[in-house]
Design a protein that fits this description.
alpha/beta
Length: 207
């Protein structure tokens, strides 16, 4: 499996990495679903001025306030590219949410998903440690959490099969890792992705 490298381990590094990895697609309109700070816009501006960016999230500073699970407030094929980085695992209805991303995309969909079976998660589970702040049973209801626990293999199968139903095909995919892991063993990540890949990154193209 391919291994993609982020230039830095922070959020901006991930955004810059995604833009660079799929550098040939970034023209026209882009919808960033679950945009958080909207810094994906900055990553785009560093490589292209030919982008009409719209960020959507539950809260400001998003350009559009909306909820993916309640349906995106846009017509079919409204954007050339729809992006959802680390978003689907937060939704209760991941099936409907995935379909919504595809519905609004004219050309491409870019998705990233976590691999809960990655080695750090396995070791934490084995040692009785908390997996992350997105899992567990807090005293008060959390504002945000992961609703799904799945492996890289399951994520790949889900995306491929679901994309086919919506008229899309997997055009490119791989393991997204930071600079430290890339330096220590990108070849190992590529050979054993279900064990060493923390994030699955995929590019879908409409047929």
């Amino acid at each position: 499996m391919q291994v993609f490298r982020c230039p830095t381990p922070d959020e901006m590094g991930k955004f810059r990495g995604v833009v660079a990895i799929f550098r040939h697609i970034w023209t026209g309109s882009v919808l960033d679903v679950g945009c958080r700070s909207g810094r994906l816009r900055e990553a785009h501006e560093q490589v292209s001025s030919n982008i009409d960016y719209v960020g959507l999230d539950l809260y400001p500073p998003a350009d559009v306030i909306g909820d993916l699970e309640k349906g995106l407030p846009f017509p079919d094929a409204a954007f050339d590219i729809v992006v959802a980085l680390d978003v689907l695992e937060h939704t209760n209805d991941i099936y409907k949410s995935f379909d919504e991303l595809c519905r609004c995309a004219r050309r491409f969909v870019v998705i990233s998903l976590p691999n809960a079976y990655e080695i750090r998660g396995r070791l934490k589970f084995l040692l009785g440690m908390r997996l992350s702040g997105k899992y567990g049973l807090p005293i008060e209801p959390p504002k945000d959490r992961h609703r799904w626990i799945f492996s890289l293999n399951e994520a790949r199968e889900f995306v491929r099969r679901r994309a086919e139903k919506r008229g899309f095909v997997v055009r490119d995919e791989g393991c997204l890792i930071g600079p430290r892991r890339f330096f220590l063993g990108s070849a190992l990540v590529g050979r054993l992705p279900n064990l060493f890949c923390p994030t699955y990154l995929v590019l879908l193209e409409r047929l």
